[in-house]
Design goal:
heterodimer; A: mainly alpha; MetI-like fold; 2 domains; two-stranded antiparallel ribbon; 13 helices; B: mainly alpha; about 70% helix; globular
């Protein structure tokens, strides 16, 4: 009988413990609050706002006007947008493969136990921690079109005539790509290196005992074992390439004649040069959808399965 | 056979090192030559006309000192705030029991891979609406937390045994004291990794500060350096600007190398 009766003392204990559990809960919410509020405003809200904006015509100062799908329709009929789209895809194609291959070979080279190897790894990584403004400023001089320009001088050794790197419409994008490969290869080298170090050494030894040469071991044993890393490197490099902006802004200003105007550069021009906020938002959303589709396709095409790790 | 391969390996390593470091060597060398109008090859690595006139011109003609200060204020604030907000949220997601924890966590994780460049227009408009355009608040607050950082901290806190918390609870500590006195000191490696990556990402960020700032006095170094390129001057002048901008991240990288590499393996650095 005594156990069932609600005494004042037990009620106090119970309500106190309930109050205490609520209070500890509230503490947890306080811990999450700063991140959550910032997330709600600067991620969730701006996404909703961007979608809303993409249906508006707004020049920042004047009144907003609802235009329905007008921005999207105009975008898809706009040759400059298609040109930017094409430039971005070409850039992605000529950037991702070479940067992945070069950084893999460099990673294989520095994945050896040799004296001073850490110094070389750091040297190759240095461009990655350097800001794009510094890199572009230096490369602007490396790529000067005169015969005594550093790169023209170097290709002169190979008997090639001087090139107008950033002036020639067909050379400007490859030049920017070359700079980007130089600037980012060290980043992918570290990703490959992590993958290489997870391949068990016994596998290599077993293959060598079976009489396989160095290249055969690399192609037949190492590379298949690196499939998760390959998928990761290709997806990360592609997502980065589709968002290319800084190098183009700094090195070529999108030129010559739009030869290096990427989608993000086009978005920037629409919003911050011609003040067409809604139009720029629509272009951003199209770019996001493209990035999403490409990333999903790569996951499927390269055979991503959840059990890969 | 193995021994014969080692000189060839080093030959290749040195060649690649020249390719990686050559442009930086050229930059520093050219910046020390007051009379260099055009950059042309072949050029001597050790300048014949060594002098600091380009640097004097740089600090005289531009407000690069102010840009460095802006970058430092922005970067240190963002880094400190991210360490605080990410470790707090990470602690709650790792240890807390509260309604909605899983839902909130997965909502954050779902947006982890969303590229930040595509939201630059609405981000700019929100910053303007808040009255933060061309101000430190505008440069700092939108980046005061990071989903990647929250995830990193949560994963690390999960590796710290809960026994420590329980022992502190029995001693009468509350959640805040456990967070500050017990868990945070044990999470120093994760905090160092996150801090290093945040520092580099913020210092090197370009599109966001380009859009948010409008006056010369508010530019961080990366954006200020870009406006420098529109000025006229000889090659040595520009290379001095590049060198001054290069040195902070170079020194930081030398000091924090271990954490940079660890962070990259976790893919927290923008490629």
């Amino acid at each position: 009988m005594a156990g069932r009766v609600e005494t004042p003392a037990s009620a106090i204990v119970r309500s106190r413990s309930r109050w205490r559990s609520l209070r500890t809960c509230w503490t947890w919410y306080l811990f999450v609050a700063p991140s959550l509020i910032l997330f709600l405003v600067f991620t969730l809200f701006i996404w909703a706002f961007m979608i809303y904006l993409s249906f508006q015509d707004w020049s920042l100062i004047g009144p907003r006007a609802f235009v329905g799908l007008g921005n999207y329709r105009e975008l898809l009929a706009n040759e400059h947008f298609w040109s930017a789209f094409r430039v971005t895809l070409v850039y992605t194609l000529i950037f991702v493969g070479p940067v992945a291959a070069i950084s893999l070979l460099v990673a294989a080279l520095v994945n050896q136990r040799l004296p001073l190897i850490g110094v070389f790894r750091s040297a190759y990584f240095l461009p990655v921690v350097t800001s794009i403004s510094v890199i572009a400023l230096v490369w602007r001089f490396i790529l000067i079109p005169r015969a005594e320009g550093p790169l023209n001088y170097l290709i002169g050794w190979l008997g090639l005539p001087p090139q107008e790197w950033l002036i020639d419409t067909s050379l400007a994008l490859p030049s920017v790509t070359g700079m980007q490969i130089w600037a980012t290869a060290g980043y992918y080298m570290i990703l490959w290196l992590a993958g290489l170090q997870s391949v068990p050494e016994e596998l290599h030894e077993a293959a060598r005992i079976d009489g396989a040469g160095r290249w055969a071991v690399f192609w037949r044993v190492t590379l298949p074992m690196l499939r998760p890393t390959t998928i990761f490197v290709v997806i990360i490099a592609t997502i980065g390439a589709l968002q290319m902006f800084g190098a183009v802004f700094l090195l070529t200003g999108g030129g010559p004649v739009r030869a290096t105007t990427t989608v993000v550069y086009y978005v920037w021009q629409s919003a911050f040069m011609t003040y067409r906020m809604g139009f720029g938002a629509a272009a951003s959303i199209v770019l996001f959808v493209v990035i999403l589709i490409v990333a999903l396709l790569q996951r499927r095409f390269l055979g991503w399965t959840e059990d890969i790790y | 056979m193995r021994a014969a391969r080692i000189p060839a390996t080093y030959g290749l390593l040195v060649l690649l090192a020249v390719a990686a470091l050559g442009p930086f060597a050229m930059m520093v060398s050219a910046s020390l030559r007051p009379n260099l109008v055009y950059l042309s090859f072949p050029m001597p690595l050790i300048p014949p006309d060594l002098g600091l006139a380009n640097y004097a011109q740089l600090f005289g003609r531009t407000i690069i000192g102010r840009w460095i200060l802006n970058s430092a204020i922005m970067t240190l604030s963002v880094t400190a705030l991210q360490l605080l907000t990410c470790s707090m949220a990470g602690f709650a997601f790792a240890r807390g029991k509260f309604p909605g924890r899983e839902a909130l966590f997965w909502m954050l994780m779902a947006s982890l891979m969303i590229p930040s460049t595509v939201t630059i227009i609405p981000l700019f408009l929100v910053v303007v609406k808040l009255g933060w355009a061309n101000s430190f608040a505008g440069l700092i607050v939108p980046h005061a937390t990071s989903i990647f950082g929250t995830f990193l901290m949560r994963q690390y806190f999960k590796t710290i045994p809960g026994d420590y918390d329980d022992a502190a609870l029995i001693d009468g500590a509350n959640r805040w004291q456990i967070y500050l006195r017990v868990v945070l000191p044990l999470a120093k490696p994760a905090l160092a990794t996150l801090g290093t990556l945040t520092f580099l990402n913020t210092w090197n960020d370009f599109l966001f500060p380009l859009v948010v700032t409008s006056s010369d006095e508010m530019r961080p170094l990366t954006v200020g350096l870009a406006t420098l390129a529109n000025q006229t001057g000889n090659a040595g002048f520009f290379m001095a600007g590049a060198t001054v901008s290069f040195l902070p991240t170079f020194a930081f990288f030398l000091a924090m190398q271990r954490y940079v590499v660890r962070g990259v393996s976790l893919s927290g650095l923008k490629g």
